[in-house]
């Protein structure tokens, strides 16, 4: 049996370039890992008119994990690939833990004055299968003055409890053991109450984890004024989308932002991808930074139980980034080579 | 007839202290303005068990504007006063334009490295009467494993169009004439499409205003990485709640953040208040900064058509803040006195 069967969806633009490096690094650290390439994204859509044929999704399902680059191109109407591929995988593969670590790494600079590497180190656990992302909305009287449009946020005790428990377990394993719930309980009283009550109930199982609650607007402000206060954060799908981008911004942008859309039970494959997009403007030049893609590969290794390999990869990325000459340009493949060589 | 009939809801904690200064400044710049005090907030609620009796709301309705300090106290369950007073006024008085300017003032420091005063100067026009704030949600099987909770975002062409048109008109009056629509059209396809189509339709009436669209997650990132790019922003109720707190954070926190919940037709009174809360921890000491409250008074004057007075007040606040010795402590009433004296 192979040590890991990984589906590679390199995608569009710089996605293909950075994913090649992530794969190279996995090959270096986990000999025997098997890779199957899937050509999905804008090119595939423009050629076939399909986003994710059922037969391909069935094949993806037979892998241990999906290594994804980036999808999207100006030639495709906005939303089509996001919903038809990224969000579809999150829902169909029950990837309810959307994992987004944010760290201020040595060699990177925060836009916040006076912050030193190491001072920001948080993980946001964003719910991935419920909330406003379920697509439960409607339109009446479209294109008339009487038009109304609705969007419904659906939240279940089942769905909230499992992601909250996952976040507590992660907080428990970290040094600071602190977990912040982010919601908007003073306005979204129904969903907010479900989240707050579930959070309190699960907290009783984790007496060593200290807890805190913040409204999403206050949390967004703290992400800027005091990001050091966060350790693990758990929040709903939409709030998580927003605050993880603020977290990425204060840790120097999306250059180092990795993410995993995780099905913790491994009943379905989980997807690992950099937070950045396909960046058509710099695609094909070999100058995209593969750090976030390689860190996503580290999350993949961690998820598949290769803890030592995961740690070594993230340390090698950190060392490579720390060794860069500030302001110097980089070559995508050279970064991958250096990280792979260090392993 | 009086030049302006202003209802004063000073509220709790530092609310009373900073509102006294805002009132002092209005008195200095607009002789003849009349003030009626209303004792609402935590103290009133704890004494009477009511948040906003109908008779008082009827009285408030007969004023030209409401000058509000801050409400909230740990003795009151979270959400009660927010929903029963602040949000109730926004809905009952049809305050559909929630106006939040953010400026990096001379004398204040952005947490962002390298930003100079004047470099951030934006106004967020947040919709105030629709979206997820309408309270349309439900719970089934509460406190059982089968619990579900919903929140519904309601959006009308009528409601979106009027706030979008207001934002275009504001952008038109500014130097840069740039308007950014912030939404999440790739996920909230129904409401997002209504907002995007309405925005495009109204844009045709304002050919001099340049426009741009950003997803809320990208906008949140740009608020940190490049806040200079924003001039006027229009967005829905919840997104506006979040991005205005980021805007406040990058302009040095909520010390200078003023807001108005505006009914532009003046059919109902509009409410003007600092974004900060009642800060029970420093209440009663006379050390709260009244700048945001006085700037809110400036927005009030502007709304009532006293443009020259509004400008003079905001210039006087700017001068007072710029004259402060960095790090020195301040006295609430002395700041008010200095601003009033300068007028
Ligand atoms: C592309 C988009 C649908 C997606 C989201 O909203 O989740 C993205 O912003 C993300 O954070 O992964
Ligand atoms: C207090 C709360 C209900 C309110 C809101 O969410 O609108 C506040 O955060 C604001 O921004 O005025």
From TrEMBL, chains A, B:
InterPro entries: ICDH/IPMDH, IsoCit/isopropylmalate_DH_CS, IsoPropMal-DH-like_dom. It holds the Pfam family Iso_dh. The keyword Metal-binding applies. Residues 5-339 form the Isopropylmalate dehydrogenase-like domain. Its cofactor is Mg(2+); Mn(2+). Keywords: Manganese, Metal-binding, NAD, Oxidoreductase. SUPFAM superfamilies: Isocitrate/Isopropylmalate dehydrogenase-like. Gene3D superfamilies: Isopropylmalate Dehydrogenase (3.40.718.10). This is 3-isopropylmalate dehydrogenase. The gene is leuB.
